[in-house]
Design brief:
alpha/beta; 17 helices; 2 domains; Rossmann fold
């Protein structure tokens, strides 16, 4: 057996750390594995390698590395924190909660751990405990904007008009690989098909798919349009959409910014299950009105809120809008409401999610 080489192991570890911090995850993994060849079982290297794998959604590979690190150092708070993340990715939420409790037993002032505990309790349907944990995270200065967003979803207090910057992009970048299977097969996602059925005519010239994702709606739209553009925040989603080959052009951008800036004009603007990540839709309506050609159609879905509110942020961390609010926006931006129909959009926790299917036209 080769004797441990501490200097070579440290040098490789530092190269891995530098690559990890720069976001070069392939390089980081290679350097950390080389470090472990020189010095097997070193907990800090095992934990960093596991964190690199978790950033690439490889929880099943990360978990045994973390267990090995914890066998050597049972009080390693970072290892418990990363183990929680691995178990969360594997949807083993009760075990993930137990791991974050072990982390906090060692590092009680770790704000990021309180954030993770709050998120887990929220997902486990324990809202009162989740609120307490998220408030503690805010007190400790951990990811304050995101934790206040989650708190708003649980309490209904101080609801922001949109999520924190980067939240949606990070969410869908991590989700891109199995998005289609999850959305269509497990959630019984129906919004694009229902919207297509509601369109007032069979064919369109140029169409824009807002929040196009992997192209679930685009593949249905393609036979009915002459030209199809898509816009999405997530590079991972756009890579999947590009592979399907149904879009003529794809843009990585915030949809409101794109609507405000693009020189293109469209006969159809389509947004299926996109506005669940936006509360205040005034800027969207203004942008859509700007890019719609005369007689153009704006078709979209939202989760259905009661008319007592314009919009609300739900415990699912998704927004819902009321029919009253949608009609008011249409009137304010010169759009005619052709259809506004309530239907089931998909499942969430095996329960049907009610939404509004809207079709509006420009003069």
């Amino acid at each position: 057996m080769t004797a441990p080489d501490f200097d070579a192991a440290t040098a490789a570890f530092l190269e891995g750390l530098q690559a990890q911090q720069a976001g070069r995850l392939d390089d980081a993994e290679r350097h950390y594995r080389r470090s472990l060849q020189h010095l097997p079982g070193r907990p800090s290297t095992l934990v960093n390698l596991a964190a690199t794998l978790l950033a690439r959604q490889r929880a099943a590979e990360a978990l045994p590395l973390l267990d090995e690190a914890l066998a050597a150092e049972p009080g390693n708070a970072d290892a418990w924190y990363q183990r929680c993340g691995a178990l969360g990715q594997l949807n083993r939420l009760d075990e993930a909660l137990a791991s974050i409790e072990r982390c906090l037993a060692v590092a009680a002032e770790a704000g990021a751990a309180w954030s993770r505990r709050g998120g887990l309790l929220k997902d486990l349907g324990r809202p009162a405990e989740a609120v307490a944990a998220l408030r503690r995270a805010v007190e400790l200065g951990a990811d304050v904007e995101m934790n206040r967003y989650l708190l708003a979803s649980l309490t209904g207090e101080a609801v922001p008009p949109r999520p924190p910057a980067g939240y949606v992009q990070a969410l869908f970048d991590s989700y891109a690989g199995d998005f289609d299977e999850h959305l269509v097969e497990r959630l019984q996602y129906r919004a694009p098909e229902l919207l297509l059925q509601a369109l007032p005519r069979a064919a369109f010239g140029a169409a824009l798919d807002l929040g196009c994702g992997t192209g679930v709606a685009g593949r249905l739209l393609r036979p009915r349009v002459q030209a199809l553009a898509g816009v999405d925040l997530s590079a991972g989603m756009l890579a999947q959409a590009r592979a399907h080959g149904v879009y003529d052009t794809l843009h990585q951008a915030d949809l409101v910014a794109h609507l405000e800036a693009t020189p293109e004009r469209f006969d159809l603007v389509f947004a299926a299950d996109v506005f669940i990540y936006l509360g205040d839709l005034a800027a969207v309506f203004a942008g859509v009105r700007r890019v719609l050609r005369p007689g153009g159609v704006f078709a979209f879905s939202v989760e259905a809120a009661d008319d007592a509110v314009d919009f609300e942020l739900r415990p699912s961390s998704r927004y819902a809008q009321s029919a009253r609010y949608l009609r008011a926006l249409a009137a304010a931006h010169g759009l005619h409401v052709q259809a506004l129909r309530r239907d089931t959009l998909r499942l969430d926790q095996r329960q049907p999610v009610a939404g509004w299917l809207a079709v509006m036209t420009a003069p």
